Amino acid sequence: MIYIEDLHAEIEGKSVLNGINLVVKAGEVHAIMGPNGAGKSSLSRIIAGHPAYNIRSGSIEYEINLKKKNLLDMGVHERALNGIFMSFQYPVEVNGLSNMEFLRSAFNELSKFHGSEELDALDFAEFAEKKIKALGMNTDLLERELNVAFSGGEKKQNEIIQMAILSPRLCFLDETDSGLDIDALRTVASGIESFTNKHRAIVIITHYHRILEYVNVDKVHILKDGRIVSSGDSSLAKEIEKHGYKNLG
Amino acid sequence: MKKIITSDRSAEKERIKCKYALELYEDFQERLADFRYEKDEYWKYTKLNFLAKFRQAPITSLGFADANELAAPRAEERAKLIKLLAPLVDSSKQNILVFFNGIILDEQPFMPLEKLSLSHEAASFSENGKKSEVNFPYSLRGMKKQNFKETNILALLNAALASLDCKKGEVFIKLDEAACLKKALHLVFVDSHRAQNKVISPRVHVTLEKKSKLTLLETHVENHALLTNSFVSFKLGEETELQHLYADFSGAENSIHFTRSLLGKGSVLKSYSLQKNTNKSHASSVQHESFLREKEAKLVLQGFYYGQGEEKKDFIIKLHHESPKTYSQQLFKGIVRDEAMASFTGSVKVYRDAQKTNSSQLSKTLLLGDSAKMNIRPQLEILADDVKCDHGATIGQLDADELFYLQSRGLSKNHAEEVLFLAFIEEFINELKLIFPGETVLKNLKLRD
Fold first, then answer.
1. Using the beta-carbon criterion (under 8 Å), do A97 and B422 form an inter-chain contact?
2. Would you say B156 and B27 are in contact if contact means Cβ atoms under 8 Å apart?
3. Residue B16 pLDDT
4. N or C: which end of chain B has fewer CB within 10 A?
């Protein structure tokens, strides 16, 4: 689904990725772990198309519906419309914008793109509530302003809600587990787990092994100094939990 | 509703009134001769370069000497008008009065209208015609009788051109004591190609007698004139309430909208303005001068503007707190992009006797791009010693993180910007929705091109 080859990138003159190679296939769940400043968040922001990054070299190929596209040629919203989703580590608060209206705008943009029916406010509310209940989350979040005065856990839940509503094909979840208490972690993790299927790829970016106790992953990668220094199955995560990142790379 | 009354004034009086137009116009020309708006503290941010064309221009080249044909337009003009306005008005919720090239139509197209005292002539009010200058202090007759010298040069031009046709130049609206209309009153201004190179000069006076209430909408739509120069006066009697919305969605080249209000004891005036024009070189000025004349008068002034292309927009607010315990609140929010320029001048004067006055002023602007400009000038003059006055101003840009967040969910850059613009003015729109529920004018506020 995504093929990243020898990717070098910088932000404000500081290099953050130094030759990333990564292949994620449809139906797979990967975890990327690494210490602070390893480039984990940069990688997911680059996938989403954040304009602050400069790609020095390398390529990212995105395969959707049997077509290969050069991801780096696509604009931010174009990537989203083509099924790429990044859950934000720090979701942005927007005063004056209702969460419901925001979600409906995004949903309808996607519907327009796929030539399917757009939903009016009432139909969308019904659709969204169903989705949220299925995730075991609170529908009250819909009525509030986008992320404004949300607790840390609510913000992360809201990211998962967006993912469920937009139904993307490739998801980069940037530290979706950080700052969550154990109950919130379970809710978020089961949301992710229920979201996996053979057409979809999920990449979980995390500091901790904890979330991997609730979500089955096919592969674990360790990112350090802008490079993947080690890859393996979920036992690698347990290894890290015991010994830390120090001995790697 | 009473049919619009035209008085049986003699030709003699008519000539006198027309003479008054000439008198006012001469006055205007005299002032224009050495008027340099760029050097004038009051006008320096208003784009008045069209004034150069007015020097030495005969009065009839700018205004309409005979308003009759405008008040009763040809059948095809009328049909076009109705087609244009039908989606913008709602006669089940509004009493709709249409103005064509600045002149109120004799036969109104959108019925029914509630009964209200409405006239072209202050003198034609039966019960207190003699007091017309008291009821309508800024009527032409009132100005003349009281020898009132208009200091605002554009308001002076309005008076001159409005008095050119002495029968139809002004419209008077009065609510009697404790009166309250079931529906809002909606004044709709539209002009035609006849207005090209002309100055459209609507002149409307609204007087609320003790304890009456009115919701007044004023919408400006299609526009072809060189300048639309409106003058609106409000006189609020004791414990009256007026809610006013001025919305300009026209493609006017230049527009000046001047409101002067007199607030009586315990009266409440809430006046809102919305501006989103279709002509990207539009220049406009919204001016409001208010006299909080008696104690406990309350004024809320809010405005939203959207400047794009090479538009110039300015707000000039002048408040006079003349009596104790008066209250004023101002909130102006705007988005300025491209090469557009906006300015806000808010002057508040608290007179010596106006103790316990409470006045606040806030201006917030979103500036997009490197070429957009905004000037903010708060001016407070406080002569009383026991008052609460504050002012604040912010100028900011769209938050890059917010834009990225919305785009990453599939919204195009333009769409994301629009969503953020609307979020920026949400508090303003929410208040409008509360005050003017279901009003059609709000539906016209689409920021996306």
1. yes
2. yes
3. 43
4. C
Q: Using DSSP bridges, classify how beta strands B94-100 and A84-87 pair: parallel, antiparallel or unpaired.
A: unpaired
Task: State percent of chain B over pLDDT 70.
Answer: 89
Number of CB atoms found within 10 A of residue B91's CB: 16
Q: Using CA atoms, how far apart are residues A35 and A39, in angstroms rounded to an integer? A: 9
Residue A145 near residue A95, CB atoms below 8 Å:
yes
β strands within A73-179, DSSP E: 84-87, 170-174
Tokens in use for B345?
């001048």
Strands (E), A12-88: 14-24, 29-33, 53-64, 67-70, 84-87
pLDDT tens figures, B137-158:
898 888 888 888 999 999 999 9
Give contacts of B416 with chain A, Cβ < 8 Å. Answer: 77
Q: ipTM of the predicted structure?
A: 0.94
| C-alpha–C-alpha distance, residues B376 and B378, integer Å | 6
Q: How far apart are CA B232 and CA B296, in angstroms?
A: 23
Q: Distance between CA B423 and CA A98 in Å, rounded?
A: 8
Express each pLDDT in A48-90 by its tens digit: 999 999 999 999 999 988 889 999 999 999 999 999 999 999 9
The residues of A whose Cβ lies within 8 A of any Cβ of B are 48-51, 75-77, 79-81, 85-86, 88, 91-92, 94-97, 102, 105-106, 109-110, 113, 162, 166
Helix (H, G, I), strand (E, B) or coil at B281: coil
Closest C-alpha to A211, from A183, A181, A185, A235: A185
Tokens of B83: 């087609």
Q: Which chain B residue has its CA at the smallest distance from A103's CA?
A: B409
CA distance A116 to chain B (A): 15
**Residue A37 phi, psi (nearest 5):** 75, 10
All structural domains of chain A = 2-243 (3.40.50.300)
pLDDT-above-90 percentage for chain A: 68
* Cα–Cα distance measured from residue B304 to residue B311, given in angstroms and rounded to the nearest whole number: 15
Segment A194-233, tens digit of pLDDT: 888 999 999 999 888 888 888 889 999 999 999 999 898 8
